[in-house]
Design a protein that fits this description.
mainly beta; OB fold (Dihydrolipoamide Acetyltransferase, E2P); 5-stranded antiparallel sheet; 3 helices; 14% helix
Length: 276
């Protein structure tokens, strides 16, 4: 079955003059709008993006857009007219956000988080009203689970992020030791599901023992490469620790505590040293 607004793998089923049609044994024929080189073969499979053209017919292109239907993406506005705003999504025809699907009036040159969807005529549109597609709460995620995040917006508490295209979560400002930007795709982890309201707290650092174990190896390697000493300790500012290892101060303290317990390092107020 052909999926409109998605990437499909279709065969060349017919060539009529310069026109090439794609499909499968059970699907309708889809006009390929691109011109292929002359050495293509009958029944050759192509990876194409399928959409409905202005005449209501199925069409396909080998150009793959930035986002597909049912996905959320950070896209720039390239023009605005009497029907709405148009976004650059990597195809020749820009993506429409009708005025009725704009939370606030969209401005040329600005980028927005939008969700792509099909209207009742199977045309691909986008909306900035993404809250109706996202849940604030969940009991399905596991603490420590790795998730795909899209950075959304800054709040007084921290940064809201979209989890796996389906849920909202929070990255707390006092636990962020790196710069993130709206629209950025980044891996994160489930820190906790809050008991009082089932909302989701996030972290960019893998929680638990496995993370600490991998950090201890990194610290030992860096000590060895720096003559057995580093000017960092459990008293160092979080920013300095993150700059050196890309981890939070909490994880760093856990790691050097484990190394000290194993008698692999010596601790003082300003540095750590390898045990001779």
């Amino acid at each position: 079955m052909i999926q409109i607004g998605k990437v499909n793998r279709l065969k060349i089923v017919k060539q009529q003059g310069a026109d090439i049609y794609l499909g499968s044994e059970t699907s309708n024929k889809v006009l390929l709008i691109d011109r292929l080189p002359p050495n293509h073969e009958a029944d050759e499979e192509l990876e194409v993006f399928v959409y409905v053209d202005t005449d209501g017919h199925l069409a396909a292109t080998t150009r793959i857009p930035t986002a597909q239907v049912d996905e959320i993406a950070w896209l720039p506005v390239v023009s605005v007219n009497y029907v709405g705003a148009f976004l650059d999504w990597g195809l020749r025809k820009d993506l429409l956000v009708p005025f009725s699907e704009q939370h606030l009036d969209m401005q040329v040159g600005q980028s927005y988080l939008v969700k792509l969807f099909l209207d009742d005529k199977s045309r691909i549109l986008a909306t900035t009203k993404i809250n109706r597609f996202l849940s604030e709460t969940s009991t399905d995620f596991k603490v420590g689970e790795k998730v795909a995040l899209i950075i959304a917006e800054s709040t007084d508490l921290g940064i809201r992020a979209i989890i796996n295209q389906t849920h909202w979560g929070m990255l707390y400002r006092n636990e962020l030791f790196q710069t993130v930007t709206p629209g950025q795709h980044i891996d994160g982890y489930i820190k906790q599901i809050r008991e009082e309201d089932l909302k989701i707290d996030l972290t960019l650092h893998q929680p638990g023992y496995k993370k600490v174990a991998s950090v201890t190896d990194t610290i030992l390697a860096k000590l060895a490469a720096n003559g057995g000493e580093l000017q960092l300790s459990d008293k160092s500012p979080p920013e300095a620790i993150y700059a050196a290892f890309g981890i939070s101060k909490k994880v760093f303290k856990q790691a050097i505590g484990a190394l000290y317990k194993d008698q692999k390092i010596i601790l003082d107020k300003t540095s750590i040293k390898l045990v001779p």
